[in-house]
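HUMAN: You are asked to prepare a plain-text protein record giving the amino acid sequence and the backbone structure tokens, both parts labelled.

ASSISTANT:
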Amino acid sequence: MMDTITTLLLSSFLCSILASSTAVSTIATTQSIKDGDTIVSIGGRFELGFFSPGSSINRYLGIWYNKISNDSRTAVWVANREVPIVDSSGVLKLTQEGVLVLSHNDSIKIWSSNSLKSSNNPVAELLDSGNFVLRNSDDRNPENYSWQSFDDPTDMLLPGMKLGINNVTGLDRYLWSWKSSDDPARGVFTYRIDPHGFPQYFLKKNSVQQFRSGPWNGLWFSGMPRISSNSIYNFTFVLNEKEIYFTYELLDSLVVSRMVLNQTGDLQFMTWNWRDGSTKSWALELTTEKTNCDAFSFCGAYGLCTVGNSPECQCLDRFVPKSPNDGGTEADGCVRRTPLNCSANGDGFLKYSGVKLPDTRNSWFNLSMTLTECETMCLKDCSCMAYVNLDISRRRGCLLWFDELVDIREFSQNGQDLYIRMAASELGNALSPVEKNPSSFWKREKRIIVISVVSTVTLIFGLGITFYIGKKQQPKTEGRARHHPGKGYCKKTKNEDIEVPLFDLATIASATDNFAINNKLGEGGFGPVYKGMLEGGQEIAVKLLSKYSKQGVDEFKNEVIFIAKLQHRNLVKLLGYCNQGEERMLIYEYMPNNTLDSFVFDQSRRMLLDWPKRFHIINGIARGLLYLHQDSRLRIIHRDLKGSNILLDHEMNPKISDFGLARSFGGNDAEANTKKVVGTYGYMSPEYAIEGLFSVKSDVFSFGVMVLETVSGKRNRGFYHPNHHLNLLGHAWILYKEGKATELIDAAIENSCNLHEVLCSIHLGLLCVQHRPEDRPNMSTVVLMLGGEGALTHQPKSPGFFTERNLLEEELSRSKNEPCSANMVTLTQLEPR
């Protein structure tokens, strides 16, 4: 609960009020503060204004502790961390529309609050919690804030802040370190929740995992120092359908605390005790350790890391090094000494005590099951590798693993009991929790016998029916492959050097709730796409080949063959496929943030995609294309690059998808010709659309279109301007020639953009969409330019297809083919004249 705050309006005599030490906490509509002015929360704990960190002369709008440190201001939040003001001309104003705007010389926008909710009689208020909020002047309900700084954290978590994801709005709150003590710009470290499987937090350096918190066990995170109950602070982890987050609250009003991710990657929890008058520095309460055993997966699969041991990595009991004959060590990972024998009911579980729980990204959980029920469920599924009691405070809950167990270390005090699946011969006298109770053991054995008999009879009967129907209706179709959650049964495609997991139809139907309409994610040229979840808890996206689709068996095979051979962080991962009867499906990893189109062209969601995220996405697409064109075993031309084929994961990393229309080159081939032109209007290059000539430069053209769309928030096709009939490419080119390229920038990113990066992106986009393919850069040059390593010295020439009624459309209008639609569905066949 926040303290009661007296609202005072900031009048024209602001400076004199501040000089008399009167606490002003509110800005009313059209009022402003300038560099040199400050706002103080009514309780006096926090102050908002302009400051220069460390030895820097740059100016930033921020919030810091008031009268807490005699050496320097401890900033807890920074607004314009990426775009500093180089002098004292900064002004913060609250507009009539209820938006906070930070400007340079009261004219050039530097930052804004990007409020998504409208407010009547808006006021901006600095609360004594350190939260800077926008609300209606007569409404103090925290749920009704139109904007709050707590939703946009920098490197620090204060009491009452949430660190995690809102599943309803998509808001992701995480910590991002400063670049240095003098520069609050985003550094290389982030601390962020990963919601896959059972949620856990990862500390990353750039995109590389450094440390994992482990899952919440009801009292603490299993990989963090144990948090003891005390009278000063209380930690909470919330997990429900709407939200997943960690937060904490102070129980002692005379204590100040903060959790900070510093520039060296240390996550520290610190306190300042006002009760102790001699306190002159922050006290470190908790911090992430930096031993080798805290490094993510330091000892590999089934390896146990023990601090102080020599060597630190050893295999878990009854495991051996993965490659002993090749000089392998425990750090390379381990395997079971005796293989599992699930089919003969010969497996059990061995308890390992005092360990950090393994990586939970490929796990399943239930919050109400008992440990006995948890073991029974895991034992029934051959792909279940381990289980554990999820909530040790209530001795309830079940967590199951469906993959190799990685990132395990010994914790003598904080560790938990972990039950790992082993062959029966390895168990010896080790008894599972169920087997320690003889009556329970024999009851379980009787249940297993009964279940086994019934299951066997049912299976034989079912196989007979399936065989009869299969022989009668599908004489040429192969039998179904059995699939366990989290595991695929591989089938080698005839005449193809490829192995991909094969799913049966029943598994996919169950995962998608029989393709329920509420699980439908969308539909493209291939057919509808559904969200699903395998029994092991892994989320999937299922793409069905519609019988009405113009794409057919060739495109289906094409995608399976290509994407299975391609491995890159910016390419979507194919988990398997289903080819049963007339049903053909592709099973992918699920991308929770949908497509790039769903953000850039959506009036509300585009506000969630600021410039740093957009630039990150542009860079990721470029790296994925470079891999396809140059670094993959196959030389791939995608031929259908567009925003709807760029998927976004939970961290907004882009993944190129939909390889049904892709083509590969061999040797030194650079281009090819086809009579079957495929692609999407607005993204196809001129030489390809008219002549059927495609090359890597065709994909470069499509990439350039996406860059300009991402910067502007406008589609190339369907673009309208009252002063001309040009499409987006033509409009961007005219603005660039007239020196007005900034007019192309989407209003949603004006206040978050790095102007140099945006202008370079526009320049690069125009280079990529030039009419002649030989004028366009290749993707290796594009990646260098985006990284600031290549000079943009060439001036772009006129784009291809830069008028609304271009040559392609004239050709189509004379074609005998059916008329094209104005939507963004892929065109799969076009005979050029």
